[in-house]
Amino acid sequence: MNVNMFKIIKDLFPICRSITGPGIKKSLKYIENIIPEFKRVKIKSGTKVFDWTVPKEWTINDAYIFDFKNKKKFADFKKLNLHVVNFSTPINKIVNKMELFKNLYTLPDQPKLVPYVTSYYKKNWGFCVSENDKKKINRGNKFKVYINSSFKNGYLDLSHAIFKGKKNKEIFFSTYLCHPSMANNELSGPALITKVAKYIKSIKNREYSYRLVILPETIGSISYIHKFRKNLKKNIICGFNLSCVGDEREYSHISSKYGNTLSDIALKSALIGKKKIKYYSFLERGSDERQYCSPGVNLPVSGFSRSKYGAYKEYHTNADNLKLVTQKGLEQSFDVIKSIIDGFEKCFIPKSKIVCEPNLGSRNLYHTISHKKKYKSQNLKLDLISYSDGKMNIFEISEKTKIPLDTIINEYLILKKFNILDKI
Amino acid sequence: MNVNMFKIIKDLFPICRSITGPGIKKSLKYIENIIPEFKRVKIKSGTKVFDWTVPKEWTINDAYIFDFKNKKKFADFKKLNLHVVNFSTPINKIVNKMELFKNLYTLPDQPKLVPYVTSYYKKNWGFCVSENDKKKINRGNKFKVYINSSFKNGYLDLSHAIFKGKKNKEIFFSTYLCHPSMANNELSGPALITKVAKYIKSIKNREYSYRLVILPETIGSISYIHKFRKNLKKNIICGFNLSCVGDEREYSHISSKYGNTLSDIALKSALIGKKKIKYYSFLERGSDERQYCSPGVNLPVSGFSRSKYGAYKEYHTNADNLKLVTQKGLEQSFDVIKSIIDGFEKCFIPKSKIVCEPNLGSRNLYHTISHKKKYKSQNLKLDLISYSDGKMNIFEISEKTKIPLDTIINEYLILKKFNILDKI
Amino acid sequence: MNVNMFKIIKDLFPICRSITGPGIKKSLKYIENIIPEFKRVKIKSGTKVFDWTVPKEWTINDAYIFDFKNKKKFADFKKLNLHVVNFSTPINKIVNKMELFKNLYTLPDQPKLVPYVTSYYKKNWGFCVSENDKKKINRGNKFKVYINSSFKNGYLDLSHAIFKGKKNKEIFFSTYLCHPSMANNELSGPALITKVAKYIKSIKNREYSYRLVILPETIGSISYIHKFRKNLKKNIICGFNLSCVGDEREYSHISSKYGNTLSDIALKSALIGKKKIKYYSFLERGSDERQYCSPGVNLPVSGFSRSKYGAYKEYHTNADNLKLVTQKGLEQSFDVIKSIIDGFEKCFIPKSKIVCEPNLGSRNLYHTISHKKKYKSQNLKLDLISYSDGKMNIFEISEKTKIPLDTIINEYLILKKFNILDKI
């Protein structure tokens, strides 16, 4: 069974998720049904996780504003779940315009769009509407604000899958699933990680172990680190935070804290030859790489995105919808991750079995007539062989030779068949 | 009592200093009166200091040229002490134009200005006039050249102050005080070092020790190294040659010999965000960093200047006067040095006391409503915390995050108050 | 007796060489006559050298195409030895146009020139003509192709010279001599290496040992490595492949595999101040540095060229002739290599004998009057002294100070005479 990433996004899109509560539970369950190796981890409400406290479960049933003058509902949660500030406390109250406006969020610079707003760590309530709609309601002076939400003790839910290989050393992928109806940020990440899990499952005799985790952003990764820190620090040699991976506009690499980990070089090599690559320094981070690279944790984790969170106009609005993500964009993102996995599995450190250059011509891998021309793909082979002296890994060789990672892996496989290269 | 740097310069300006003799003695005394911790070090004339010999004391009483045709004195030392070549031997002789001109120095490219010329290490005499004035005297044919100077055995004088801290490791500041009436080069350095001394005195429970020295250029630093080399090499971890620090035009950083010392990174971070920063390689050195970085010495010393010696048009002329240096320029220079001292004292290697990011929102240090905007000063805190894992010092963190050193120290102090950061 | 490099090229030009056979034997003999230290090394045909087999000796006596229609010979080997594909099997056969054209090589982009084509490692035959000449013969329809060549068991010949010094550590130079009548590529290399050998011979009390080798390209260097690998890996600290060193157009540096060997820094420093320097990455390699830097070998070898193979329009054509190389170009190339040898011999790691700056003025090496001007050559001395603290070699100092290698060696020699510098 193949994984249809776009279908996952479409199926999960309508659910109103938050960092806790039924939305994320149902969404995790959906993925666990596809990849049963994803196992639920539950952290009790109220648990201290480092400097934070696991919040209660939030349930939302309904929310709207009623304009008494127009006798009309608007900011109706049932029509668009972004209309309610995520994690809002319940309210049912008549308010005047001033009080309403204090709790009404818009994007004046993008007047047609409804913003996504949260208040997880301070009790608050609010509504989100477009700036244009806010202007229309301007005339009313009495409003009912109604939010039917509740908090209860329960659990923070997350799900992780560990695929063992010959080595205990782990390649790590993390993504989050706490956002309500938005597609690129962040249903694309869970869709991609599902396909990545499927691919890892399909690898026979895995060399490396793999750890994949889907969790609510920030509090989820902090809770996960709190529970598994020793294991993570012991085993992870390369990791990626996957976020906003569903559009086709560009490829983004958010550097790890010191920019010099295996994850940085691996991702850099996997992006060689792509059109429109953006490198972001760690100072421009914003997702769970914040936690994975934090003091006391310091895991070798980079961020991989297409159009990065905060860097595309639909970000955190109702325009981040099913038109923004595409099957092609998702597949391209999968190809990047696949090539990194292949790099680890097929030829992490390649080594030539032959001293000096091999005679490629005798194997019909090289022109036998030497004429004044360039033979591009033949040079690729010679470049790969030349750096296969056991000192550089395949990512470093790709970066050094500027040969795209997937191309160089293919060249390796040919040369391995001819008994010229092997891995250490 | 506050230190008024501009007043120091004004008071010392009229004195005719040289590398030895009453001028520098009187000038050092003036500063010792303000900061009694500055103690005199005296090296006997004739002492061998490495490849050099300490010269005799030079006294100058009067000097001029008398034009017999015009019956007029000119190049009158009493009107401008730059008129006589510094360290001139005595002379009283009738000379013709040719002989006079051999000993007359001008600046043809800056025809209105009188140059500053010295001949310390070879017996010589001479006068300095403006090119315009030289052209006027062209018609005379007999001149009396009169220099009433003398040399006697005595001492080379310098003054140093050592402020002990908990650690023996020293931060070192050096400047020189051998120039006659010029302001930026070099009364600004002694004025600044006086204020720096005052500031260091004011620090309670100093972490580091500080060594400050005021000396005649070249022979002074060589003599100082000769006398204290073992101590200097054992204790100095970071040092600066302070020269030409009184104007407002730019900030200059003269790299240490290999460009990779604590002094380089400290100064680089202290200049972040300043307008007009100039980085000079060690090849463009010219002051006492020459000696501090020489073979057999190799101290971690950079140069700090505003408009660097040799790089501003008034340099080594009578135009380097009280109009060039300003109170504001001096204070700005002090702020740079102060921030470096603060970096050492307050948070040399900061370390987070919390695993993962702290919950800044719960301490009202972060927005609790997450909306699609940038919160600049909050990012500064998170950036500082993120790199506070005990691997980088505050200068490196400032350089890495591009947060100006004084800003990042302030952020540190706030986060320390909240028990989030501490120093190692 | 001086070595006249241009004469060597002129004398050797007419000979039709190949990787084996009488042409290369005769050419090596010519050089061995000039430098008797060059000793012949012979590897038997059929010997396995790593992944390759030493080929038989190839002898060519005559070759041409006869056009029956025009009753005219063309592509006549006796007029231009490039006309026959080098290492062609014998043939004597009537062929039609189609069959002829399959074995006829031209350069459509350079229609006046005859290309140089080889088929060493696969039995084949062919002719090379200009595209213009090919067009003319287009009308004929029956042709006799005649190649009077033969293969026999014998030897692959190469020649090497080892000049012992006090240290066993070797500086290595390699060039090749397998090309028929072409001048820059590759009679310039053997001409240069001959003069280099002469120069090394002339050095009394050599500090370092030197290994020079002239061989057929690729199979020759592979055979040489096969025979001497242990010695090469043990002793060579710096090496250069010399190729295309006879024109005046530019200087080229082909980086070693990792770009960080003594050969890279030495060559970089020797090229400081030259007009038109081109740096090529190892990915643009193409000559025997391929073998010297290959897995299992990894010698510290860079490539030195003027207009690099493949990068000038006459390359591998009959236009690479005696008009392209000049005595001046050859001498300039020699000067580069000479300065590197001098660097090793005269002052590999210079060290100041004096703590602090020496008093250059007292030795008349520095102005004694300090005036507002720049004294360029005096700064060179101070820069060299400053970095002579035993941490950097002369090549690194040259690169750091941007002082051309030959200039800095001259400055060293002056300062050594004054007992200021010595070598470690």
Provide a descriptive summary of the structure in words.
The first copy, chain A, is an alpha/beta fold and 424 residues long. Chain A has three domains: 5-55 and 155-345, Aminopeptidase, CATH 3.40.630; 57-152, Domain of unknown function DUF2172 (Glucose Oxidase, domain 1); 349-423. Chain A has twelve helices and 18 strands. Chain A has helices at residues 5-12, 22-34, 97-102, 131-136, 188-202, 219-235, 262-270, 289-292, 327-347, 376-387, 394-401, 405-417, and strands at 39-44, 48-49, 52-53, 57-67, 72-74, 91-96, 104-105, 127-128, 142-152, 155-163, 170-176, 209-215, 236-242, 251-254, 277-280, 301-305, 350-352, 421-423. In chain A, the strands form five sheets. Chain A has an eight-stranded mixed sheet, with helices on both faces. In chain A, strand 11 (170-176), helix 5 (188-202) and strand 12 (209-215) form a beta-alpha-beta unit. In chain A, helix 5 packs parallel to helix 9 and helix 9 packs across helix 12. The longest helix of chain A is centred in the C-terminal third of the chain and has 21 residues, at 327-347. At the A-B interface, helix 6 of A face helix 10 of B.
